[in-house]
Amino acid sequence: MITLKGEHIYLRALEPEDLEFIHAIENDESVWEISNTITPYSRFLIKQYLKQSHKDIFEVKQLRLVISNYDDVALGMIDLFDFDFKNSRAGVGILLKETKDRAKGYGSEALNLLINYSFNHLGLHQLYCNISEENNASIKLFANQGFEKIGLKKDWNLVNGSYKNEYIFQLIKN
Hints:
CATH topology of the domain at 9-124: Aminopeptidase
Number of strands: 7
Largest sheet: 7 strands, mixed
CATH superfamily of the domain at 9-124: Gcn5-related N-acetyltransferase (GNAT)
Number of helices: 6
CATH class of the domain at 9-124: Alpha Beta
Shape: globular
Radius of gyration: 16 Å
Order of helices and strands: EHHHHEEEHEHEE
Strand content: 35-45%
Structural class: alpha+beta
Strand order of the largest sheet: 1-2-3-4-5-7-6
CATH architecture of the domain at 9-124: 3-Layer(aba) Sandwich
Distance between the termini: 21 Å
């Protein structure tokens, strides 16, 4: 049985009703550095994306899930991206929209659910993530879930006129 339910949150597929939630996240300039976004997204483009969100991860190489509490309030999103079936790996990204929802264990719970799903149901061998050297909260989150820091990419991302280093973390299935 596939379970994407935790103690405090669950992960669910995208729904058409998520349009405004996703639009708000994608157009929040304060998180563009995390997602490597440089331009705003229109509601039209997000609506088109939502229409395609039913496609299989093996086809589109990505899976985006909403992190929701049991009051059915969307708290954030967690993604598998660059899904590589041949090499049995994918990248992971996570974002909780509101700062008030961070540091409460929701991210850890969501990441743990996604790790279990990735290894036990998608049959992946490894997951990886890219984290800015300055993003201590994400470094702690992924390290606490067993991801190992395996390298530093120097001057990797140009942010507000300055280059920033980025770590790569990796989790290999036991």
